Amino acid sequence: MIAERHKAALVEILGAKGVVEDSAGMAPYENGARYDQGCAALVLRPKNTAEVSACVAYCVREGIPFVPQSGNTGLVSGSTPDASGAQIVLSLDRMTRTFELDADNRSLHVDAGMRLSDINERLAQSGLFFPIDLGADPRIGGMLATNTGGSRFLRYGDVRKNALGLKVVLADEAGTIVDLMSGLRKNNTGVDWKQLFIGTSGAFGIITECELNLERLPRQVSTAYLVPRDGAEIIPLLHLLEERIGSYLSAFEGMSRSAIGAALAHVPSLRNPFQNGDVPAYVILVEISRTWAPREGEQLLDAVLETVLADIWEIEGSPLADAFVGPAHEMWSLRHALSEGAKHAGRLVAFDLSFRRADVQPFCDWMKAELPGRFAGVAILDFGHIGDGGVHFNLVVDETRAGPVDDRFEQQLRDWVYSVAVDQFGGSFSAEHGIGRKNQAYYDLYTQQKNKDLAADLKRLTSPGSVGSVRFG
After folding, report:
1. Which end of the chain, N or C, is more open, meaning fewer C-beta atoms within 10 Å of its C-beta?
2. Cα distance between residue 152 and residue 271, in whole Å
3. Does pTM surpass 0.85?
């Protein structure tokens, strides 16, 4: 689907190792994390910002559409090519050379192709980390492009909060490089342009380098599983913990019985931590942490958590039905296995939603009551970041009962779920994964025309070329 002269020109820019054109080599870039299947004309793998600029400039001048791709771990078809065979995939996976730590400033200059796990593994010896905790292992460019949050958003915020500077390549005929790099946390000398490129899925430009805020690694961590008396007690329980633990509180993660059951059934390394193997209807993983080593005479963190939970237990009409403190690595292993369990439970239609904190459980309860009568053979596996209002709302389809999950069936599901989430509960149809082909129609439906017009103007100004899979205008 692409002329030989274009291939030759791009090989001239990147060298033979920077261009993938055989079907086997392109397959990992064409297939996404959730059944995405596209067809690429070529895969380009630049190794630095200058090469990204040269590739982008060539593609824009020649009218060749391209899709930036980072770790390819998204759920909404935002980084995979469509089925036309006309789009080039521009992968950042070779952009891993720059790693410049400024320990005094607690900041890191890094290429956008670095994986989150690699960043934190290399930072560990310095006692620092990039505080975005995710079940997947994405590359930092994609995290910035979708503004990921993760399980410790409650304490550290999202990627946007932890980005100090960016370097961006615009999709124009010059492949213009915009240098917004900075190690400054306070700089009010004009428009904060980096925010234009964070969370917008590459539509306005491709992030190639970044300066990240780092945090001190926790030296003390304590975790517990909490069982609320019912769904209505989850937010009161969160209020009590925030009141009594304050800044120590780093995670408040909700896990439904169905999600836990799928993880225990499909992840052999897990053990069932609940008495007699009976999984409660809903479980909250709470974490508290300190960044310093235990001090002589200081109450240990496990004791702090146990004392607080005992106090909550004694409250008249306590929201707490049960609780037990346990090893952090074991408790988090269950939380991080929930996505894997859902993936293996059946044909999955995944949603990444957000609400006001008090609306998360009412939404899930409403859906559990209404779904069986509308879509037979579809089960709900829900879990998420109750502390920040996020929920991974996964629907697992029994295709022997519901029929095959074709595009029409998936659209019916999405139409209904998003209508309830947005229209009835005032939520967002995309909490962390940005906009991709799977939810483009919902962006079009739910976004005010004035906002779309402004986005179209910004697109024309910054990146007029055919970049990415998103139409913001």
Report:
1. N
2. 24
3. yes
